[in-house]
Amino acid sequence: MLDVRRREFITLLGGAAAAWPLAARAQQGERMPRIGVLIEYAKNDPQADARVAAFGEGLRKLGWTEGRNVHVDYRWTAGDLDRIRASSAELVALNPKVILCSGGLTTSILWQ
Description:
- 55% of the residues lie in helices and 15% in strands.
- By secondary structure, it is an alpha/beta fold.
- The protein has a three-stranded parallel sheet.
- The N and C termini lie far apart (78 Å).
């Protein structure tokens, strides 16, 4: 009887040791790098779609996958000056590693 309990204990201990790295990896999601993207176009604009697709492809070529090892926050401004300012503030508050400005208007407003 003691032998059976010992085996169960060793099996339980082994299972916990095997699951530990998986749990540790799952917790790393909070430390995932964040990128903010400020886009001058409306979300449904074909130019915006093309830019987002190109950006995503560039990330993939560098080994980054959205939701897996990097988090990307998009803000669509549709060229609205107030929305550009508000979205910029939102992105800064998220504390990303970098903010990408897509479009001349968003870039010029941020430098004023």
